[in-house]
Predict the 3D structure of the following.
Amino acid sequence: MIDRATRDKLIVALDLPSYDQARALVDRLGETVSFYKIGLELLFSDGLSLAQELKQEGKRVFLDLKFLDIGNTVEHAVRAAAKLGVDFITVHGHDTKTLRAALRGRGDTNLKLLAVTVLTNLDQADLDEQGIAATPSGLVIGRARMAENAGFDGVIASGQEAAAVRAETDPQFLIVTPGIRLPGAETGDQTRITTPEDALRFGANHIVVGRPINAAPDPKAAAETFLAHIAKG
Ligand code: C5P
């Protein structure tokens, strides 16, 4: 029997083009999955209605909207999102001004704020192009420290950076890790991948799994396989 705390370690990304497809997947997964991520694609297909439905059904919800704007806009956007009663939201962790604006918007609600450190599709050449004199991993660690110092609850980090972030931050600081694949599985466009066991061993609190579950012929069986790996990890 897998307990709720173990189930909550698995966040299934509802990266689907319509509300109906996302709703059908959630219904098919039933009690197997307790935590969902809604991102920019589903946002434009009634994703926020689904987020509220999921909360009413006792699920946890991560809105992956990756805010980055002037402080006033970020503050008000986070305040509006907090009213939906969702659990996690993402903000780009580039500067303390943005992080503090998000914290003001969150106020005394239970919404947890996660900073996106460096997107996992960016490499050294992309940082050079932006005039950033740091390595991707150095920047991830620096931004994780900045997010923790500002009062954020955690970061999004690939499994390959999770251990360094865990070593540099408080044990309570959350690490949420996408780019998860079982050994030998299709990687798709992900390059910095890790297995569920490794991500958890390196310090991740939650793993985010998209296509290996949402595009599987039997999503429920796929989710159960991931949960078995999590329980083992
Ligand atoms: O299908 P797959 O498992 O690769 O999906 C990973 C999910 O995690 C996607 O929703 C993607 O947007 C998200 N994500 C990511 N890398 C980041 C931040 C979020 O893959 N750095």
User: Anything to note?
Assistant: The chain has a mean pLDDT of 95. The CA atoms of residues 24 and 229 lie 25 Å apart. The chain has twelve helices and eight strands. The first strand starts at residue 10 and ends at 13.
